[in-house]
């Protein structure tokens, strides 16, 4: 049964429209007899199901969904319904699984993964969307019949009818009440893996955002923030003239960061400024981080590194020598892990204003292409200011030692700080990822320090508050480099009004939080390289 569903999915992803496929548009559907209609899911639910299955196969919802919506020609309200159904279901699937398991005759019985996805979609409609119960059940049963088979339709019907017998608060009471462990309870209520909730509790306490006594309340607010979709924040890259168009499009200046704007509605991708690269969708926390690096004090005593370039051009798209004249010291900036280029985009615009040069480096060639594309506005207007390289960041300390004034290490991490933007991410990550990322994060930071000239600064950042990839990494690396010291980064985090952001921790590093700052959970540590 399940295999039939998979074949159907594969055919549809290939673009063919087998019986009951997505090629059937809404107009054709309305011409069908009602009995026939009931056997097929409607296009919006069908799209949501398709994304769920792709995510189960390792796909990323934010990458798959736009393609599926486009292929299904879903727009407007239908696209909105499919998006809310997909993202909402992925986010809350931990809670829905607990509810579903409470509704089957033999809890723990293995449910076919495709059927479970369909049940999750049904549970979300019943417990979180304004879809009448009968419509939610019948449309989801139709989805099961179409993709899996008649028998699955009967099973889905029975389970969803049980789900519909209680309200969401009643289900929360029942399934979360099954444990006395407060962390497990929070995990079920807020649909997070238990290990993630434990790690976030440790991070809240470790970064000074709560005490052991207040951690439960803070955790609950943080987990709720992860379940609240974030409206898109944009960056207006300074000096590229995007602000006027953003204003005209109804965007409003965001108080969190001087370069940040929020769009109350509409598709930012339609804006000419976004298409040109003068503006982009970017979390305000990421913007603060780039602004902090550009604003950090550096000692200007040693500029020797800027007067002779040793950059190997074999994998670069820039001339070998510094384009500034050798007797006009130009600050050299390096973004060591730049792909896909979000922070490099802002850094490049700031580099123009500072008369600096930015090297944006990325280990993967295809991601370096994304960086080039992100930097297109600055590269077009000021080709001498920025160049993109493909190199393992761990080698840059050796290939280009002591060269840079300001270095960003936006390290690969678990992304546990961006869960509100990536609904499927919380289920994808495991503690094993931390073990694998730890050595790489340490090596990249060490390489960055070696590539920085005495008096220069390195900003280490992650989109995660997990202690193992934030504070522990920095402390370990500082032990190896006694001449490097941590600088208090908190005074550099200033909102649009110029005020220092509150509640970023006891220092010298800083942790941003979705529930406290309205940003992703970015960590940043600023290190000064000594003589
Ligand atoms: C967190 S992302 C950087 C995001 C980026 N700063 C932005 O704002 O768009 C980490 C990047 O590091 C890259 N990376 C992983 N290992 C690397 C290495 N050894 N050297 C350089 N980059 C690496 C990954 O491919 C990924 O693009």
Descriptive terms for the model:
alpha/beta; globular; 531 residues; RCMT; binds S-adenosylmethionine; 24 helices; 8-stranded mixed sheet; 4-stranded antiparallel sheet; disordered N terminus; RNA-binding; methyltransferase; rRNA small subunit methyltransferase B
Q: What can you see in these coordinates?
A:
The structure is a single chain. This protein has 531 residues and is an alpha/beta fold. Helices cover 48% and strands 11% of the residues. It has 24 helices and twelve strands. It has helices at residues 2-13, 26-30, 34-37, 43-56, 61-71, 76-103, 113-128, 133-147, 150-163, 168-176, 182-190, 194-206, 215-226, 243-248, 272-276, 284-295, 342-354, 365-374, 376-381, 396-399, 425-428, 431-450, 471-480, 514-517, and strands spanning 233-236, 252-253, 260-262, 279-281, 332-335, 357-362, 386-390, 404-410, 452-462, 484-487, 510-511, 523-529. The strands form two sheets. Strands 5, 6, 7, 8, 9, 10, 11 and 12 form an eight-stranded mixed β-sheet that branches. Strands 2-3-1-4 form a four-stranded antiparallel β-sheet. Helix 17 (342-354) links the parallel strand 5 and strand 6 (357-362). Helix 11 (182-190) crosses helix 12. It starts with a helix and ends with a strand. Bound molecules: S-adenosylmethionine (SAM). S-adenosylmethionine binds at residues 286, 336-343, 362-364, 367, 392-394, 410, 412. It comes from Ornithinimicrobium faecis. GO terms for molecular function: methyltransferase activity.
């Amino acid at each position: 049964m399940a295999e039939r569903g998979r074949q159907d999915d594969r055919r549809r992803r290939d673009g063919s429209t087998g019986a009951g496929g997505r090629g059937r548009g809404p107009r054709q559907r309305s011409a069908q007899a009602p009995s026939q209609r009931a056997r097929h899911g409607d296009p919006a639910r069908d799209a949501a199901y398709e994304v769920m299955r792709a995510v189960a196969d390792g796909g990323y919802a934010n990458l798959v969904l736009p393609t599926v919506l486009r292929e299904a020609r879903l727009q407007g309200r239908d696209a909105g319904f499919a998006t809310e159904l997909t993202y909402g279901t992925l986010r809350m699937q931990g809670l829905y699984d607990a509810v579903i398991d409470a509704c089957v005759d033999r809890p723990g019985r293995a449910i076919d993964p495709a059927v479970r996805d369909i049940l999750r979609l049904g549970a979300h409609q019943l417990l979180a969307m304004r879809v009448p119960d009968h419509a939610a059940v019948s449309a989801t049963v139709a989805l099961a019949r179409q993709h899996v088979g008649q028998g699955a339709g009967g099973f889905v019907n029975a389970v969803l009818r049980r789900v519909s017998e209680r309200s969401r608060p009643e289900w929360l009471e029942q399934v979360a009440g099954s444990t006395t462990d407060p962390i497990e309870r929070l995990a079920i209520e807020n649909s997070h893996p238990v290990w993630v909730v434990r790690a976030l509790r440790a991070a809240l306490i470790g970064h000074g955002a709560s005490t052991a006594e207040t951690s439960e309340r803070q955790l609950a607010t943080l987990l709720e923030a992860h379940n609240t979709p974030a409206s898109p924040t944009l960056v207006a890259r300074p000096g590229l003239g995007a602000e006027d168009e953003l204003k005209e499009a109804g965007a409003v200046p965001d108080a969190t960061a001087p370069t940040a704007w929020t769009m109350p509605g509409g598709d930012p991708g339609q804006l000419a400024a976004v298409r040109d690269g003068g503006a982009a969708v970017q979390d305000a926390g990421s913007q603060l981080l780039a602004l902090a690096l550009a604003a950090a004090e550096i000692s200007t005593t040693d500029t020797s590194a800027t007067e002779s370039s040793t950059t190997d051009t074999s994998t670069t798209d820039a001339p070998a020598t510094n384009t500034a004249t050798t007797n006009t010291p130009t600050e050299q900036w390096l973004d060591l892990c730049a792909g896909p280029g979000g922070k490099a985009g802002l850094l490049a615009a700031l580099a123009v204003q500072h008369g600096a040069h930015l090297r944006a480096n990325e280990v993967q060639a295809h991601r370096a292409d994304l960086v080039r594309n992100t930097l297109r506005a600055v590269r077009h207007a000021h080709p001498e200011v920025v160049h993109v390289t493909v190199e393992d960041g761990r080698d840059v300390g050796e290939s280009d030692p002591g060269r840079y004034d300001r270095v960003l290490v936006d390290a690969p991490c678990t992304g546990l700080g961006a869960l509100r933007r990536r609904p499927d991410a919380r289920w994808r990550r495991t503690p094993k990822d931390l073990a694998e990322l730890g050595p790489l994060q340490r090596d990249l930071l060490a390489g960055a320090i070696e590539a920085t000239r005495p008096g220069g600064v390195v900003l280490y950042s992650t989109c995660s508050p997990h202690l193992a990839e934030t504070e522990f990494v920095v402390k370990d690396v500082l032990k190896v480099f006694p001449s490097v010291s941590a600088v208090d980064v908190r005074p550099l985090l200033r909102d649009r009004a110029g005020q220092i952001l509150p509640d970023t921790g006891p220092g010298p590093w800083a942790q941003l939080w979705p529930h406290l700052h309205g940003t992703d959970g970015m960590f940043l540590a600023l290190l000064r390289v000594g003589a």
